[in-house]
Specification:
The complex is a heterodimer of chains A (117) and B (110). Chain A is mainly beta. Helices cover 0% and strands 44% of the residues of chain A. Chain A is built from no helices and ten strands. In chain A, strands 2, 4, 5, 8, 9 and 10 form a six-stranded mixed sheet that branches. The N and C termini of chain A lie far apart (37 Å). In chain B, the strands form two sheets. Chain B has a five-stranded mixed sheet, with no helix packed on it. Chain B has a four-stranded antiparallel sheet with strand order 2-7-6-5, with no helix packed on it. By secondary structure, chain B is mainly beta. Chain B is globular and about 40 Å long. Classes of the chains: A mainly beta (117), B mainly beta (110). Chains A and B meet through strand 4, strand 5, strand 8 and strand 9 of A and strand 4 and strand 8 of B.
């Protein structure tokens, strides 16, 4: 079946502009995650949605970053007043619910490469 | 969140076994040990996870020390396609959130 999809695949913007990045999770997956990966670095957790629960926003680096998940499916990550240090690959992942003894792996999308000039 | 320590890089020859170590001395009793890998220009993919006992699947084996302060991911016969960054991650039992470290970059030579 279809995997996690993200759009756009590449985004070039000017410093100070707002950007929106989209993630379409795998159908039926109730958990959705956003990460970012700067050049040559590991993944940095940003935010986590699980069903109807309040999202875990503990990884958002500043109040310029926000994310929504509408209807429990598609998610949008918004970065306001972009800065050059926001340049990175933004990765989305989804999974079926599972905590404790049960764990369902995260499936990652191909990412959106954001370049802030 | 408990931390993991991995070597920055490792090398292997094709068709040889590879043992990727991970130290997690501050692991709590309810932390699960996860491994993901990231192939070049792709998002990470799940490899294996465990709690206390050793685990085997079609991709790899996970050997967990008796005191759980370290673990080893074992690729039984490395292939060129196994060249990737391997991340060892601790996950608390009460969340699905993963906190990635910097991982080990595995190079496989023909």
């Amino acid at each position: 079946g279809a995997g996690v999809s993200q759009s756009p695949s590449n985004k070039v913007t000017e410093k100070g502009k707002d950007v929106e990045l989209r993630c379409d999770p795998i159908s039926g997956h109730t958990a959705l995650y956003w990460y970012r990966q700067s050049l040559g670095q590991g993944l940095e957790f940003l935010i986590y949605f699980q069903g109807n629960s309040a999202p875990d926003k503990s990884g958002l680096p500043s109040d310029r970053f926000s994310a929504e998940r509408t209807g429990g499916s598609v998610s949008t990550l918004t970065i306001q007043r972009t800065q050059q240090e926001d340049s990175a690959v933004y990765l989305c992942a989804s999974s079926s619910p599972g905590t404790g003894r049960s764990y369902n792996e995260q499936f990652f999308g191909p990412g959106t490469r954001l370049t802030v000039l | 969140d408990a931390k993991t320590t991995q070597p920055n890089s490792m090398e292997s020859n094709e068709e040889e076994p590879v043992h990727l170590p991970c130290n997690h001395s501050t692991i709590s009793g309810t932390d699960y040990i996860h491994w993901y890998r990231q192939l070049p220009s792709q998002g990470p993919e799940y490899v294996i996870h465990g709690l206390t006992s050793n685990v085997n699947n079609r991709m790899a084996s996970l050997a967990i020390a008796e005191d759980r302060k370290s673990s080893t991911l074992i690729l039984h016969r490395a292939t060129l396609r196994d060249a990737a960054v391997y991340y060892c991650i601790l996950r608390s039992y009460n969340t699905d959130k993963l906190i990635f470290g910097t991982g080990t970059r595995l190079q496989v030579f023909p």
